[in-house]
Write a structure and sequence with these properties.
This protein is of the alpha/beta class. The chain contains 7 helices and 13 strands. The strands form 3 sheets. Strands 4-1-5-6-13-12-11-8-9 form a 9-stranded mixed β-sheet, sandwiched between helices. Strands 2-3 form a two-stranded antiparallel sheet. The longest helix has 17 residues.
Length: 255
């Protein structure tokens, strides 16, 4: 039996400030290959070259990755400001309808960082452009200096609901995670269930209520050290299982 194919939603970059590419980090492809036990396929987020329907017919599941550009605030009814940062409108035009289509059909997906935020926006929620400016909130941004290991080190606790899917999956109600984001959920979409929070109240783990398939998403970056980290590994293992079930014609619900 073949491994399922998981589409890794890519980001647009310029190499040497002149050559445009669609790219995804090695840690994402390795997490999909080594832990989810699936074939990683980088998805070009450009509606000029792919459609949502084509992607869903080729892939068994989708990983919505992090990325420097943010979801454009027009997608949740707000005006863009300097605080909202950079944007990738082509990714918005692929990722948001793809999430909604997967929710409706039951096709599994896993959202990470920007992907976590995309899931909330796709389901009718809003974002705050700078979490650290809210009263009582911590700075969740990636440290500007240090090695990659130092930037991805575990920095705060996340506490899950006592009876939610994340606690059941982890076997623990409180875990330690990294944190590398500036934006975050302001208002959750009507079907978004916030199942985990950081110490300062920032939403960190969500799923879509009454969705027929796997919809778990997290604000941190579990792709870092995914094969060895006790928090990351069960997330990717469960996602891989859901994608294998989908490929075999069965749904595996979470939440």
């Amino acid at each position: 039996m073949r491994r399922p194919v998981i589409g890794i939603v890519g980001n647009s970059y310029l190499i040497n400030d002149e050559y445009p590419v669609h790219a995804a980090g090695h840690m994402n492809t390795r997490a999909i290959s080594d832990v989810a036990m699936a074939i990683p396929m980088i998805v070009p987020t450009d509606p000029a070259v792919v459609t949502v329907e084509e992607l869903m017919s080729v892939c068994d599941g989708f990983l919505f990755t992090g990325g420097r550009p943010n979801v454009h605030p027009e997608e949740y009814g707000e005006v863009a400001t300097a605080a909202h940062g950079d944007f990738d409108r082509d990714r918005d035009r692929i990722a948001l309808p793809l999430i909604r289509a997967c929710v409706a059909k039951g096709q599994p997906f896993f959202g990470i960082c920007r992907g976590f935020q995309e899931v909330n926006v796709a389901m009718g929620g809003t974002l705050h452009p700078e979490i650290r400016e809210l009263p009582g909130r911590d700075n969740h941004r990636m440290p500007p200096d240090g090695t990659l290991e130092e930037k991805f080190e575990l920095r705060h606790e996340v506490t899950f609901s006592a009876d939610g899917p994340f606690r059941q999956l982890m076997g623990a109600q409180t875990v330690m995670t990294n944190t590398l984001h500036g934006q975050g959920i302001m208002v959750p979409g009507p079907r978004i269930v916030i199942d985990g929070h950081a110490d300062d109240g920032t939403p960190e783990a969500i799923y879509v209520a009454d969705a027929p398939g796997f919809t778990l998403s997290v604000q941190w970056h579990p792709e870092w050290n995914a094969d060895a980290d006790p928090v990351s590994r069960p997330l990717f293992e469960a996602f891989g299982t859901a994608c294998r079930d989908w490929a075999a014609g069965a749904l595996r619900k979470t939440g």
